[in-house]
Amino acid sequence: MSDDTWLVVGLGNPGPQYAGNRHNVGAMVIDHLAERAGALLRTHKAGASAESVRLGTPPGTRAIIGIPHSYMNLSGGPTKGLASFFSVPPERTIVLHDELDIPFGEVRLKLGGGEGGHNGLRSISSSFGTKDYLRVRIGIGRPPGRMDAASYVLKDFSSTERKELPFLVDDAADAVELLIERGLTDAQQVVHAPRP
To answer: SUPFAM superfamilies per the record (predicted)?
Structure first.
């Protein structure tokens, strides 16, 4: 792979019973990016579905987009497998994941930092041996009342949220392309700007 290739991985759990869960919003964004690029994800020997696409303003930047086939807490193996196969370093790896600490509908970008109790991130940090990879944090908000966070992330989005979900997925996909095109600082200024 050339030095300018990126790896973009969306986290979730495999199987139709999890497809609409809040925990799978990262994987939803990868499906959306594939659709935008007119690409079909294919099974890769790293234990993921993946495809090479061009993201951003044409001609676009080459990126491998993928979804691990493993359960969330084992996301590190397939992610590291793709990174190794395509020779992409952690600093050019973008991980899309659900984030309880961000209100539903908002997207935030960051490099490195803690995992905030997110088992998918913990697994990736462990497999990479570093926390210094890029994250697109997709806000799902906090569980209502006394609901356990683990139960909340494994529930489907509410009917109200489902109306807004396409916009959130689209915003997160835009954030990925912006991050690749303009770098973290510039992308943060756009993505984190207050809405009019």
So the answer is: Peptidyl-tRNA hydrolase-like
15 in a domain, yes or no? yes
The question of whether 97 is a catalytic residue gets the answer no
Peptide bond into 78 cis (omega under 30): no
pTM of the model: 0.96
Other CB atoms within 10 A of residue 61 CB: 15
What three-state secondary structure class fits 122?
Answer: helix
β-pairing verdict for 107-111 and 93-99:
unpaired
From 23, 44, 97, 118, active-site residue: 23
The binding site for tRNA comprises: 18, 71, 73, 119
CATH code for position 19: 3.40.50.1470
Euclidean distance between CA atoms 165 and 25, whole angstroms: 9
Residue 1 counted as domain residue:
no
Q: What is the mean pLDDT of each run of 10 residues along the chain (196 residues)?
A: 84 97 98 96 97 92 97 98 97 97 97 93 98 98 93 96 98 97 96 88
